[in-house]
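My current task is to audit a protein record that another person submitted. Alongside the sequence sits a line of tokens, each denoting a local backbone shape. Please read both lines and tell me whether the tokens look consistent with the sequence. Do not assume that whoever made the record got everything right. Thanks in advance; the entry in question is below.
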Amino acid sequence: MTEAEQVLVLWDIDRTLLYVGDIDRQVYREAFAEVVGRPAERLPARGTGVTMPLAIRALLMDNGVPEDDVPELLPRMVELVPQRLAAHTEDLREHGVLMPGAVEALRSVHGRHDYVPTVVTGNLKTNALLKLAAFDLGGYVDAEIGGFASDDPHRPALVAIAQKRAQAKHGASFTRSNTVIIGDSLEDVRTGLEGGAPVVAVASGKTPVAALRDAGADVVLETLEDLQELHDAIASVVSLHG
């Protein structure tokens, strides 16, 4: 197996691997109240896959914060949200759930010498690491070469960021021909279409199979539980000798 045959596998986190329920929204509530000085009446929609900086911007705007104040308040919120999530570490462990087949899928992908597994996520890096650690998943992905919302709020840009980091670490070129995203949302599909990576979508979140397929996902799985199906899907959307 040569370096050129490696495949970069970009895992989404929320609703693909795990689900933390209302904890993210509680964190938004706490950070908004601290920064703005009053409760938030409207919270971001669940399960959209939108990056945290964009979700926080929408949170501010939807709750009547003047647009002129957003450039000052947004960075303060982005800084505070990871701190607030860290305070909920026990809640993540107690109330969060793993998606069906997630651990086995991660372990199986990690065990392949021709796969380089990491994450591309709408989470800020600290938030992503906290969630993975709460479920003991950090050992199955190389977070050093991942793409996070703290790198760029424009999610499709995270593909190239992860590819460059993986190339720097592994000395191999990662392009559309040997990169794959595994995710559950329309944003995951858009990230692949615009960012330059085929998408294996998993209907484990709020988006049904038909909608994921219609949005342009290359392959759509019901769950991650069938490992052979997962590996066949990855093989079908990348060229191992590209």
Summary: The chain has two domains: 3-20+97-237, 23-94. Strands lie at 7-11, 18-19, 97-98, 115-119, 179-183, 199-202, 219-221.
